[in-house]
Write a structure and sequence with these properties.
This protein is mainly β and 113 residues long. 8% of the residues lie in helices and 37% in strands. The chain has two helices and nine strands.
Amino acid sequence: MTDQIAFTDFLKVDIRVGTIVSAEPFPEARKPALKLAIDFGPEIGIKKSSAQITKYYAPETLLGRQVVAVVNFPPRQIGPFMSEVLTLGVPDENGEVVLLHPSLAVPNGARMF
């Protein structure tokens, strides 16, 4: 377990739901990854993300899927690609990423609280 933080610190992390509108292989990445474009609604728009999710997810199965991402980290250069948001997942028993997503459809841009 990590150190405890204040609730106000948690509120600084802007975690939103978005819908994947495009997904394609990212062969230039050091580890197998996909390039995603995620629609976070009119306030935030479409943002790009690199995600190491190739074990369980093929690009064509991701279109239209809602995911959860941190939208207020600074962009990060990953090879030739600028990743603008951190798509969230948790490791399975083998360390492979399983995406986090809402159990029911919610509006794009909905903020986690």
